[in-house]
């Protein structure tokens, strides 16, 4: 009991990376980094001008030094990205971590400075004196408090229990627990220590089945096998299954797949398995320039049996409904991770960027993820481990 049987497989050639995609990825990466650097330089210059005006800083060597520090900080995140991809070492990871911390904190410091600047201008417009330095510092202090809370939200995952009704669910599944995690983003910032905390929390739930919804890695780095060592402690009775996310298709794609295949994890790449009358399907994430067509696999699903399907993004909903999928598990969006980007993800994914959504016998749960990309901050959500309670309709 509990042993999976193989469904008909329609596996793509993802594990055979197309070498001609790598130069395109690198050029695209460089272009994106350049654009980000230009935006950051402009934002840091604005912060410099606002804070100089707010606090009445005089010109001189100190102000000049402050300017150049701001410019160095502005390019730290894009530069550290290039360094950690090209040369993964303790020093480059430390530089990347510090620059990511700064860029996340800077966003809220800039917001605080802008608010203080507007209040000061309004004060002058109504014939009052400019905003006192202490008030400006208080407003900036609120930004610092937000930064501290956002860091905790990212580093201390919570367990979120989701109850899902599945038509035709075999009785045996009503007594089982399923854990779903997504978007761990192991790499330069989140290391094996973070994964160990996640694994320990999952292990305390004693799940029968563990599902991973993609982006296990962040896309760069070396010694990926060592990063995954804590996963060896997880031994759910029904196994650990995973799909690829967009970050598995990036620069070190082959190394990521080899590291995953060296563990107990079973990758589902446009294929499915059947476990005690429940079909578990996985749709791989297409690499750049490729297409992932899961329809052949979906056509072979038994419509008389319930199906849980993992696909990294909350998309293709109508296709999955068409083939009788009961529960689509997704991630990718991070729920925007940092305000106000949650409004962007809600718009892009038409309101499906987070939470449980039900339409008849079809359910979609999109997780905000357990890890972070870039700045290790979360203001719109807590990092989450999802405990699924399955029940019959």
What can you see in these coordinates?
The strands form two sheets. A seven-stranded mixed sheet has the order 1-7-8-9-10-12-11. The protein has a six-stranded mixed sheet with strand order 2-13-3-4-5-6, with helices on one face. The protein contains ten helices and 13 strands. Mean pLDDT is 88; it is low at 7-19. The chain has helices at 21-54, 61-86, 90-125, 133-155, 192-204, 224-227, 253-261, 295-299, 317-322, 341-348, and strands at residues 5-6, 158-166, 177-181, 209-212, 240-242, 265-267, 271-275, 278-282, 307-310, 327-330, 355-359, 362-366, 384-392. The protein has 393 residues and is an alpha/beta fold. The longest helix is centred in the N-terminal third of the chain and has 36 residues, at 90-125. The chain is elongated and about 75 Å long. The protein is 42% helix and 16% strand.
Entry summary:
The protein has 393 residues and is an alpha/beta fold. The protein has ten helices and 13 strands.
Task: Estimate the global geometry from the Cα principal axes.
Answer: elongated
Helical stretch tally: 10
Proportion of residues in helical segments: 40-55%
Q: How is the biggest beta sheet arranged?
A: 7 strands, mixed
- Please compute the radius of gyration using only Cα atoms: 24 Å
N-to-C CA distance: 24 Å
Total number of strands: 13
Encode the helix/strand succession as letters.
EHHHHEEHEHEHEEEHEHEHEEE
Low-confidence stretches: 7-19
Q: Strands of the biggest beta sheet: in what spatial order? A: 1-7-8-9-10-12-11
């Amino acid at each position: 009991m509990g042993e999976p049987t193989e469904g008909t497989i329609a596996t793509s050639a993802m594990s055979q990376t197309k070498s001609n995609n790598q130069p395109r990825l690198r050029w695209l990466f460089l272009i994106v980094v350049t654009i980000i650097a230009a935006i950051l330089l402009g934002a840091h210059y604005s912060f410099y001008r606002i804070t100089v005006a707010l606090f009445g800083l005089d010109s001189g060597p100190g102000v000049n030094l402050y300017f150049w520090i701001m410019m160095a900080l502005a390019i730290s995140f894009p530069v550290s990205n290039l360094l950690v991809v090209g040369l993964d070492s303790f020093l480059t990871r430390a530089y990347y971590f510090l620059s990511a911390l700064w860029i996340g904190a800077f966003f809220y410091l800039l917001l605080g400075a802008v608010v203080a600047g507007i209040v000061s201008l309004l004060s002058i417009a109504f014939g009052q004196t400019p905003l006192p330095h202490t008030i400006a510092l208080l407003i900036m202090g609120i930004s610092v408090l937000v930064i501290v809370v956002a860091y905790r939200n990212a580093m201390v995952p919570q367990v979120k229990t989701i109850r899902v009704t599945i038509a035709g669910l075999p009785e045996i599944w009503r007594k089982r627990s399923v854990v779903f995690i997504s978007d761990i983003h192991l790499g330069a910032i989140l290391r094996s220590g973070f994964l160990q905390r996640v694994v320990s929390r999952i292990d305390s739930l004693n799940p029968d089945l563990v599902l991973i919804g993609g982006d296990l890695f962040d896309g760069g780095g070396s010694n990926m096998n060592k990063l995954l060592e804590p996963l060896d402690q997880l031994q759910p009775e029904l196994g650990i299954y995973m799909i690829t996310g967009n970050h598995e298709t990036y620069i070190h794609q082959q190394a990521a797949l080899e590291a995953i295949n060296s563990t107990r994890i079973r990758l589902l790449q446009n294929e499915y398995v059947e476990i005690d009358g429940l079909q578990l399907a996985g749709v791989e994430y297409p690499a750049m320039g490729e297409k992932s067509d899961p329809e052949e696999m979906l056509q072979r699903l038994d419509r008389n049996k319930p199906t849980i399907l993992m696909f990294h993004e909350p998309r293709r909903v109508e296709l999955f409904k068409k083939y009788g999928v009961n529960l689509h598990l997704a991630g990718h969006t991070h729920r925007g991770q940092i305000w106000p980007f949650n409004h962007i993800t809600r718009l892009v994914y038409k309101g499906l960027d987070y939470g449980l959504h039900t339409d008849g016998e079809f359910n979609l749960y999109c997780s905000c993820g357990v890890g972070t990309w870039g700045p290790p901050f979360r203001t719109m959500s807590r990092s989450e481990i999802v405990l699924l309670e399955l029940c019959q309709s």
